[in-house]
Design goal:
The complex is a heterodimer of chains A (304) and B (381). Chain A has 304 residues and is mainly α. Chain A has one domain: MetI-like (MetI-like fold, Orthogonal Bundle), CATH 1.10.3720.10. Chain A is built from 14 helices and two strands, in the order H-H-E-E-H-H-H-H-H-H-H-H-H-H-H-H. In chain A, strand 1 and strand 2 form a beta hairpin. Chain A is globular, with a radius of gyration of 25 Å. Chain B is α+β, with helices and mostly antiparallel strands. Chain B has a six-stranded mixed beta sheet, with helices on both faces. Chain B has a five-stranded antiparallel beta sheet with strand order 13-12-11-14-20. Chain B has a five-stranded antiparallel beta sheet with strand order 15-19-16-17-18, with no helix packed on it. Classes of the chains: A mainly alpha (304), B alpha+beta (381). The interface between A and B is medium-sized, with 23 and 27 residues.
Chain lengths: 304, 381
């Protein structure tokens, strides 16, 4: 084996670094190319439900048929635009809510004493021991008209009629924030936990009250954690399908749901692929933004 | 031991003046962490423009005492006054005190300039005043051309200067320095010691320095407070601490010393004779000791205060016969380890005055040691 690799001019190091590239090639690039290919084809009722791009005419001529109609359709029909924008809005609001809830939690965890810290960390990870789907279903039981919250409020005499919570945007936000909160907390915690606390003492020594020290020292130094946490919540939340379809209003426009409908209900693979490609482009932009922000900064995570 | 640069200056000894008012007063301060007593009933007076060093081994409570002066820890009992104001329960951000941290604690996300300006911005000063004070301070520590740099672009010595500038720019009444030179290499450390003293004299700020390095304490300080197990063992000028240690602990902590255990055989107001099992001749000391005759005492003699000769001295006191066991040539001086008949090893240092001495004392030679009556220090504890 070794001599074979040698003969091929491969060293152990090359082989090791090749593995992740091979993984990305097999499970990211090739599927992406397939989806990209389908997005340029034309729908037909057949198996598979799209026409091939390459067509052998039998006249020693190879025809390539690129159908740009799918993308044009995305632009023409404002359904897609509204779905994209609504998805981004829902994801952005959820990300901000996760940040507002997750930051104090991560902060408290990072500042608690080391023995309770591990327990708290375990508690944050605990929901992952149950199926994601099950946890979202559990929210139906909590939020529905004769669910836990409404029954409790009615029995306390605070309300007469149940409040409609399920199948509203509110329920979707609860579902997304609940499901993605750990992804916000973890990178923030990792960042805050390694912060040098003498910096805060130095700030206090120079005249900062505790809240000023937080705003001027802790917050700017935790920026890499904030960016990482926000991306980990924002990106999957944009394409989220399960939570809006289980908890949300059936009429709520989310791109994940549109994609599902195109694919399974309309069986229009080319348009579904075009939606996926466009979504990917939407998501690549924030990743590039993160990449640039991180490269522009020195290793110590300063600003400017 | 390096000579203090203060030796050349005008006498500055406010602690000898009964009318002088202490600038910092620590009154019966105790700090407990659970059952552990970090600082045990410490009282200290520090005067304006002093460089006061708290010296001690790690864990002796010196840093805790410093942190109480800064306000990061609150005393379990006792009070701290700075310039006559009770500071005991005032939070750090309201104290007229600044601290230079051992790790420097420079804000990594700010430039040198922003770091130094931080404290002034907290005071909400005018922009141009902040700018001019920051510039002055950066020029004083010779960091003017690095104002726009980020901390990770600086060397250790440069970071130290930034930390110093940042803590001095607010014109504190008291500057606390936690092991200020520990992170620097030896050459830079020596250089920086003198620079620190110059800056202190230029600005006239009172310094309290915490260090475990006796040489650093000796060079920097006007007075040293030696600490052990949370207590102040002795307070004095560097030469007082070195030449007049009050206990065995002090004499052994500062520099090296030969300790002879013995009993008082003659106890007069003007002199004492000490009989010591390790020595044939008694030790004669030209000052009285307040201790009962027959009591166990220790005579501490510094290695440089003993002379070596080949001839038997014509004296009844203060000599001993020995064999040269080891010699360490250090360049400027040599260290001799001499074995007495009793087996006790005595350390003697001699300056190498001549470049080549052919009849230099060598290994296994039989020699005699001698010292002056004023050389030993008699301690009773």
């Amino acid at each position: 084996m070794k001599s074979l690799l040698k003969r091929l001019g491969l060293e152990g190091r090359t082989v090791v670094t090749a593995i992740p590239y091979l993984w990305l090639l097999l499970f990211f690039l090739i599927p992406f190319v397939i989806v990209l290919k389908i997005s340029f084809s034309t729908s037909q009722i057949a198996m598979p439900p799209y026409e091939p791009l390459l067509h052998w005419t039998g006249d020693k001529v190879m025809q390539i048929k690129l159908n740009l109609g799918n993308f044009a359709f995305l632009v023409e029909d404002d359904l897609y635009w509204r779905a994209y924008l609504n998805s981004i809005k829902v994801a952005a609001v959820s990300t901000i809510l996760c940040l507002l809830i997750g930051y104090p939690m991560a902060y408290a965890m990072a500042r608690s004493n080391p023995s309770t810290r591990n327990i708290l960390l375990l508690l944050v990870a605990l929901p992952f021991f149950t199926s994601f789907l099950l946890r979202v279903y559990a929210w139906i039981g909590i939020l529905k008209n004769n669910g836990f919250i409404n029954n409790a409020l009615i029995s306390l005499g605070l309300i007469d009629q149940p409040i409609q919570m399920l199948q509203t945007d509110f329920a979707v936000y609860i579902g997304i924030v609940y499901s993605y909160l750990p992804f916000m907390i973890m990178p923030l915690y990792a960042n805050l936990e390694k912060m040098d606390l003498t910096l805060l003492e130095a700030a206090a020594d120079l005249g900062s009250r505790p809240w000023q020290g937080f705003l001027k020292i802790t917050l700017p130094l935790s920026k890499p954690g904030i960016i990482a946490g926000c991306l980990l919540v924002f990106i999957p939340a944009v394409g989220e399908f399960v939570i809006p379809s289980l908890l949300g209003d059936p009429g709520m426009l989310m791109i994940g749901k549109v994609l599902w409908t195109e694919f399974f209900n309309n069986r229009d693979w080319p348009v579904a692929s075009a939606v996926a490609i466009a979504l990917l482009l939407f998501l690549v932009i924030p990743i590039m933004f993160l990449d640039r922000a991180q490269n522009a900064e020195p290793e110590e995570g300063g600003r400017k | 031991m390096a000579t203090s640069p203060r030796a050349t200056q005008q006498k500055f000894e406010p602690w000898t003046d009964p009318d002088a008012k202490p600038y910092v007063r620590i009154e019966k301060v105790t700090k407990k962490f659970g059952d552990f007593i970090a600082v045990d009933d410490v009282s200290l007076s520090i005067y304006k423009k002093e460089i006061f060093c708290l010296l001690g081994a790690s864990g002796c409570g010196k840093t805790t005492l410093l942190r109480m002066l800064a306000g990061f820890e609150r005393p379990t009992s006792g009070k701290i006054f700075i310039d006559g104001v009770d500071m005991t329960s005032i939070p750090p951000y309201e104290r007229p005190v600044n601290m230079m941290f051992q790790s420097y604690a420079i804000f990594p996300h700010m430039t040198v300039e922003q770091n130094v300006a931080f404290g002034l911005k907290q005071e909400r000063l005018k922009k141009d005043e902040i700018e001019s004070r920051v510039n002055d301070m950066l020029n004083l520590v010779r960091m003017g051309q690095f104002a726009k740099r980020k901390p990770h672009q600086l060397s250790g010595g440069q970071r130290q200067r930034v930390a110093l500038a940042r803590s001095l720019v607010k014109k504190p009444k008291l500057l606390l320095l936690d092991e200020p030179l520990a992170a620097l290499d030896k050459k830079l450390r020596e250089h920086t010691q003198f620079e620190l003293i110059n800056i202190q004299e230029t600005l006239g700020v009172t310094f309290v320095v915490v260090t475990h390095d006796q040489e650093e304490a000796m060079t920097l300080s006007t007075r040293i407070g030696l600490m052990n197990h949370g207590e102040i063992v002795q307070v004095g000028t560097p030469s007082e601490i070195y030449e007049y240690p009050s206990s065995r602990f002090v004499s052994e902590f500062i520099g090296s010393v030969n300790m002879f255990e013995g009993r008082l055989v003659e106890d007069e107001p003007s002199y004492v004779r000490i009989g010591c099992d390790d020595l044939e001749a008694p030790i004669y000391v030209d000052h009285g000791v307040s201790s009962a005759p027959g009591a166990t005492v220790w005579a501490a003699i510094r290695p440089e205060k003993i002379t070596i000769s080949r001839e038997k001295p014509d004296a009844t006191d203060n000599w001993a016969a020995a064999i040269v066991q080891d010699i360490a040539y250090m360049g400027d001086m040599s260290i001799y380890l001499l074995r007495l008949d009793s087996g006790k090893v005595v350390r003697v240092t001699q300056p190498n005055i001549y470049r080549h001495a052919d009849d230099r004392i060598t290994w296994e030679e039989h020699v005699y040691l001698q010292w002056y009556p004023e050389s030993p220090v008699v301690v009773t504890k």
